[in-house]
Amino acid sequence: MDKMKAVVYNKKASPEKLIYCDIDKPVPKDNEVLIKPNRVDLEFLTKLLENGKIKPIIDRRYSLDKTADAMKYLSQGHSTGKVVISI
């Protein structure tokens, strides 16, 4: 099975227990799809964003060193939009 890098969060552990590791690449179920954006798709989305055709709803932004705080916030169900982690 193909592997990929991921930041893994165990819901039973505290958010401070994030782990960067290799995981098995997810296999979508019948009612799911696995999306791997390509350059053409990303350029199209960029144009839609620049033209104001779509607008992301960003609830909060966190720096990379505050990822645990972001995960904690998400796990508490407070998010009303996307939570962004800036690198």
Q: How would you characterize the overall build of this protein?
A:
By secondary structure, the chain is α+β, with helices and mostly antiparallel strands. It has one domain. 24% of the residues lie in helices and 26% in strands. Strands 1-2 form a two-stranded antiparallel ribbon. Strands 3-4 form a two-stranded parallel sheet. Helix 2 links the parallel strand 3 (58-63) and strand 4.
Following the backbone from N to C, one meets helices and strands in this order, namely EEHEHE
- The residue fraction in helices comes out at 10-25%
Q: Into which percentage range does the β-strand content fall?
A: 25-35%
Read across the widest sheet, the strand sequence of neighbours is 1-2
Number of helices: 2
Radius of gyration: 16 Å
Backbone shape: globular
What is the number of E strands? 4
The largest sheet is: 2 strands, antiparallel
Flag low-confidence runs: none
Rounded mean pLDDT score: 82
**Alpha-carbon distance between the termini?**
29 Å
Give the total of domains: 1
| Class from helix and strand fractions | alpha+beta
Which key phrases capture this entry?
87 residues; alpha+beta; two-stranded antiparallel ribbon; 4 strands; 24% helix; globular
Task: Draw up the topology in text.
Elements: E1 3-8, E2 19-24, H1 39-50, E3 58-63, H2 67-75, E4 82-86
Parallel strand pairs: 3-4
Antiparallel strand pairs: 1-2
